[in-house]
Q: What sequence folds into this?
């Protein structure tokens, strides 16, 4: 069996963050290293924990998803960033991808879509 995908979750909504942490943490192929509530903590946590994938909310206090994605990619370039959003428009999605995110999907797309995006990001990172 291969090592689990190491995750850092960045989400300001406490209920959604805890649910995501619980659901992803129950998977044998994933390990949640930490979860942080804002973009400001994301880069420091990524540099310290060295996750394979950072799951990043778009709308965050402090640094927004674009700024936090850039900060994470600068602090730990090996991490793949998957952004989740409730309502980003096409321009905002393009900005996330330009900042270094490998995927941007809607939160209401379901857990299966989030898991697939994480797995694809981890595979691409390993290639």
A:
């Amino acid at each position: 069996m291969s090592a689990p995908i190491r995750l850092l979750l960045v989400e300001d909504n406490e209920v959604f963050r805890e649910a995501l942490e619980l659901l992803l943490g129950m998977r044998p192929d994933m390990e949640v290293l930490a979860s942080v509530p804002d973009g400001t903590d994301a880069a420091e946590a990524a540099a310290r924990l060295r996750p394979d994938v950072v799951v990043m909310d778009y709308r965050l206090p402090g640094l927004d998803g674009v700024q936090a994605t850039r900060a994470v990619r600068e602090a730990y370039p090996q991490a793949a960033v998957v952004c989740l959003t409730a309502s980003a428009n096409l321009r905002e999605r393009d900005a996330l991808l330009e900042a270094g995110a490998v995927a941007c999907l809607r939160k209401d797309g379901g857990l299966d879509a989030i898991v697939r995006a994480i797995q694809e990001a981890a595979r691409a990172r390993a290639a």
